[in-house]
Amino acid sequence: MGKKRHAKDRGYITATEWKTEWGGAKANGGAKFKQLPFFCCALTFTPFADPVCTDDGFVFDIIHIIPYIKKFKKHPVSGEPLAIKDLTKLTFHKDGEGNFCCPVLTKAFTDSTHIVANKKSGHVYSMQAVQELNVKAKNWKDLVTDEPFTRSDLITIQDPLNLGCKELSKFQHVVKNLSVAQAAPDPVNDFINCSNMSDTHRALASLGSDAAKDAFNAGGGGKKGGGGGGGERGEIRGG
137-147: per-residue pLDDT in tens? Predict the structure, then answer.
């Protein structure tokens, strides 16, 4: 009981907790904690550090999704074929209090925020900002980088009107009990194959240097600072 209370307090549960204490451990009956929070990896169910996403909007921590793809060559949620090149590196922005937020409206994301990512830039916004400043204004340039994009480049990360797709019990890696033993991925040969990874590629090109190692270890899942509107394309910095 104490463990479940702790999981509720922190806002997420781990994949192990799901399998052993929550819905995954019960053959019948619904789980009390069904929805995957937007800030969590869809493989581990824990907060991501260096997020990437698939075209259907599921977010993963890159260090966990790459070994999974290497082993199963499948999407952990849908079970469809998936390759490393299909991943898009994301840049989540943070406000002054460390909360993930829209870099344009500077509003903190919540479970009821419609969140989208621009596949071209990797930046993550509230759909409200994109709707008002891109769609209605017919301004098809990224709100941070000014890169041209099309409507098809928008990836829905969270839609509060369609939370059923985030139900943990339907994830294929949960249904089939698929997991990958801890293995250290090759950052040069694997990470740079992801979409929008140009900055990481440059940082890791000379992995033997201390500066490159520091760059590799600096991932934090978001860019901290009021509004979070600046910074290089695809860059992820610790909060």
Answer: 999 999 999 99
